[in-house]
Design a protein that fits this description.
714 residues, alpha+beta, 16 strands, 57% helix, elongated
């Protein structure tokens, strides 16, 4: 396990919880993504180098369409991002059914969207080229239209491939998409060589191999998606699920809009460049190739960020979400510095690979230097960090920043354009001001991350829940003393009770809008726990999995996407401390049970824990030192539990308040307020900052205990 050093001492990360991703797992995720991005850029360079042999009109035509292609790819990638975030969150929450359903919907949406975009671009290819680039040379226009129409045929298959690859990334398996990408790129390069050098074709010789490679890739990725044995069981469906579609598009549409603004800025610059002539368009095409090589590591890490942070958000672990955001951002800065530094170092030799005129080569070098400088400083902030926010469901913030920053890019482009051709190299850098998450907000997010308070932490808090716990000392008896009225008055999302003293079906109580879960003791009329839930849990577990402790109906565990709720009625040590030894065994076993749950997602423990932890939790501390529930041994076990990474919710908000939850029926104890605080909500310490309220309702009667309340953001 990784460790961090604080004040000269080593402290385990995440309070001793198991990291969701080890160093090895991060490398296994990012490594194949890096290779895949490298292959993609290599093919783009090969396309450009080969088509450059067909003349500068051909390379210019391909370059102009590639700008539109990039815009289309951004749309497909945004949809895949929405699906990947949703699937990753379901997997992080261990909600398999939701993960499977969302994966099927992503594949269906990808196919439908790809068909629509492909048909649109095929039919309207010429008007689109004229709209984007205005008056360009006739031979460049013809080459662009031919290339776009052929490439448009591949769009449905490209969309399906992106969707399938996103699913495997969500599973933490990027090796599959890397292998398919390798085959796809081999087909593309070999096809280009055959068509251009063998068959003497022009731009169509670059386009058709791309179509074939994408068809093959889509077929292979879908075949692997539908195979059994994956972490996801992807259903084959032709029916859109409105709820799941809205959730995917809720992330995908803002992401598409945001990233489209950046691509629109690039197209704006290219449209200006196209007015200067073929030499300038060709130089821009070559520069785009080399720029694509420089951002390979950034693209790979931005994709990894979605999977990693999405899993953390699904698991409800904001601390790990912030930690991995910092870590991957640092990796991105280092990798981007190395890749772009290498390009700048060997720039002249790299430009020499292309068959260009002297003027075009000089201009290409200038463009690459500008882009590489911007990329080292801003790529991580503009593209990698925003994916962490998207994975935490914050798509509105990054989209808003894009909208607000777009005028900066437009103004810079206009100023550079007014300077004529001399200003074009700087116009080339202006779209950076309208990236998905521009400099200023990205810097603020990065600064916040340093202090562990990014938007990621806040966006995990998706909704507020009101939880009630009450030892009713016999549910059937409590029902005759106003339990139903108190239940309605408290209006909880989850209402937990202890000491039900009944078997299932013995009480006539079925509140509308709730699902009931009970766990009764084998001995009739003894112990027992129950919960009423507005939202059904993912799973329900009875007991703690140890035979000697699982006969008295004491622990009922509900699993939700972001947390565990554990309803507990702790064994009483009894008069004369007859069960104290058993109680100590129980405490050790129960603490181990809670820690095992906490390693997966946060825990909320509620119930009658039969211990007053500190002297302010009991009316007469001195005279009760040897009483069951206030012995040093029992109080020590509560201290051990809190020290293991948990927090007493009432004391988080009310550290010094004296308030009790149980009173003896003897000696008019409740009238005299001679009570004990033995009913609790104990939460994982990492979510203690989400507590909104913690109350003890001593105004409510019906039992010798009163209800306790926890309001918390989850």
């Amino acid at each position: 396990m990784e460790n961090q050093t604080v004040s000269g001492t080593k402290k385990p990360l995440f309070g001793g919880r198991r990291p969701l991703f080890t160093q090895k797992e991060l490398l296994l995720l990012t490594g194949p993504l890096l290779v895949e991005q490298l292959l993609e850029v290599t093919v783009g360079m090969a396309d450009t180098m080969m088509v450059s042999r067909c003349g500068e009109a051909a390379i210019s035509g391909v370059s102009l369409v590639d700008m539109i292609n990039n815009l289309i790819i951004v749309l497909f990638a945004a949809l895949a991002t929405g699906g990947a975030v949703v699937v990753s969150q379901f997997l992080g929450a261990r909600e398999q059914k939701g993960a499977n359903e969302s994966s099927g919907q992503l594949i269906l949406l990808s196919g439908l969207f790809g068909l629509l975009v492909g048909a649109f671009c095929f039919v309207l290819a010429r008007p689109m080229i004229r709209l984007f680039y205005g008056a360009i040379d006739a031979d460049v226009l013809d080459a662009s239209v031919l290339y776009l129409r052929i490439i448009a045929i591949s769009y449905p298959f490209l969309a399906l491939y992106n969707g399938g690859a996103a699913l495997f990334r969500s599973m933490g398996n990027s090796k599959i998409s890397m292998q398919i990408s390798f085959l796809m790129n081999v087909i593309n390069i070999v096809g280009n060589a055959v068509c251009i050098f063998g068959l003497k074709m022009g731009v169509d010789g670059v386009a058709w191999p791309s179509v074939v490679s994408r068809v093959v890739a889509a077929f292979l990725i879908l075949r692997r998606c539908y195979q059994k044995g994956n972490a996801l069981t992807v259903p084959k469906t032709t029916r859109l699920d409105a709820r799941m579609t809205r959730r995917i598009l809720g992330i995908g549409i803002p992401s598409a809009f945001e990233n489209s603004l950046f691509e629109a800025g690039r197209i704006l610059v290219v449209s200006m460049i196209s007015t200067f002539g073929t030499v300038q368009i060709a130089a821009n095409a070559v520069a785009n190739n080399l720029d694509g090589m420089g951002v390979i590591p950034g693209k790979a890490l931005s994709l990894a960020m979605i999977t990693v942070v999405g899993r953390c958000v699904g698991a409800g672990d904001s601390e790990q979400a912030v930690y991995y955001t910092r870590k991957l951002s640092l990796w991105s800065y280092i990798a981007m510095g190395l890749s772009n530094g290498a390009i700048l170092l060997f720039l002249h030799k790299l430009i020499g690979i292309y068959a260009l005129s002297g003027e075009t080569m000089v201009l290409s070098e200038t463009l690459v230097r500008i882009h590489a400088g911007f990329a080292i400083l801003l790529w991580t902030l503009s593209f990698v960090l925003p994916n962490a926010l998207r994975a935490a469901n914050d798509v509105k913030f990054t989209m808003l920043v894009s909208i607000l920053s777009m005028p900066c890019g437009g103004l810079a482009s206009a100023i550079c354009s007014a300077c004529g051709w001399a200003g074009v190299p700087w116009a080339y850098g202006s779209p950076w001001s309208s990236t998905g998450c521009a400099v200023s907000p990205a810097l603020s997010s990065a600064s916040a991350a340093v202090y562990g308070r990014t938007n990621i932490t806040h966006n995990i808090k998706e909704y507020s829940m009101k939880l009630i716990s009450w030892n009713v000392n016999g549910l059937r008896a409590c029902l005759t003393h106003g339990f139903a009225e108190s239940f309605a008055q408290l209006d909880a999302d989850i209402f937990s009770v202890q000491e039900t003293k009944m078997q299932p079906g013995q009480a006539d109580f079925a509140p509308e809008g709730y699902t009931e879960y009970t766990y009764s003791a084998e001995k009739k009329g003894y112990s027992g726990t129950a919960c009423w839930c507005r939202e059904q849990p993912l799973a329900v577990t009875t007991g703690i999995g140890i035979e000697e402790h699982d006969h008295e109906g004491r622990v009922l565990t509900l699993e939700y996407p972001a947390f565990w709720l554990v309803n507990c009625y702790t064994p009483n040590s009894q008069d004369g401390l007859k069960r104290l030894d058993y109680r100590m065994e129980w405490e050790n076993a129960f603490r181990a049970y809670l820690l095992a749950l906490d390693a997966k997602k946060p825990v909320i423990l509620c119930g009658d824990l039969n211990v007053a932890h500190t002297e302010i939790d009991i009316k007469n501390a001195k005279t009760n030192r040897m009483s069951a529930g206030f012995t040093d041994q029992e109080r020590g076990k509560m201290t051990e539990l809190l020290d293991a990474g948990f927090a007493d919710s009432f004391r988080v908000l009310h550290p010094d308040e004296v308030k009790y939850s149980w009173w003896s029926y003897r000696f008019h104890a409740r009238e005299k307020n001679a009570g004990w605080r033995i009913d609790y909500f104990i939460v994982s310490r990492r979510i203690a900052d989400r507590i909104r309220a913690a109350e003890i309702h001593n105004e409510i009667f019906g039992s010798d205990h009163c209800p306790v309340e926890l309001d918390i953001d989850l």
